[in-house]
Design a protein that fits this description.
This protein is an alpha+beta fold. The chain contains 3 helices and 5 strands, in the order ββαβααββ. Strands 2-1-5-3-4 form a 5-stranded mixed beta sheet.
Length: about 110
């Protein structure tokens, strides 16, 4: 099923992308050529280059049962512009419930 994710870019512009359920936010961004989402580790939760700031209205819905895991939290400690709603894009796997998700790139003033 197609789902949609809106990325708020560093300059404040919004880009809404279509993706498939089961894909991560990082994979959707990389396929669309959003260069700020590097995903250097390929989605193995071993870097912070896919760091996104989730819109507060969506944050709780992106969390796995039990909250952010220790590995993800450790990687987020290395991220620039960490915010209370920061997540690694590789750890947000899209479901129908996340259709319409809004995330900002690190440093996006709107989501600080």
């Amino acid at each position: 099923m197609n789902i949609h994710v809106t990325f708020i870019l560093a300059d404040g512009t919004q880009r809404t992308l279509a993706g498939e359920t089961g894909y991560s936010v990082m994979e959707i961004a990389r396929e669309a050529g959003i260069e700020a989402i590097e995903g250097a580790c390929g989605g193995s939760c071993a870097c912070a280059t896919c760091h996104v700031v989730v819109d507060p209205a969506w944050f709780a819905r992106t969390l796995p049962e039990g909250g952010i895991g220790l590995e993800e939290d450790d990687m987020l400690e290395l991220a620039f512009y960490r915010a209370p709603t920061s997540r690694l894009g590789c750890q947000i796997v899209m479901t129908e419930a996340l259709d319409g998700l809004v995330v900002g790139l690190p440093g996006t003033a709107l989501l600080r």
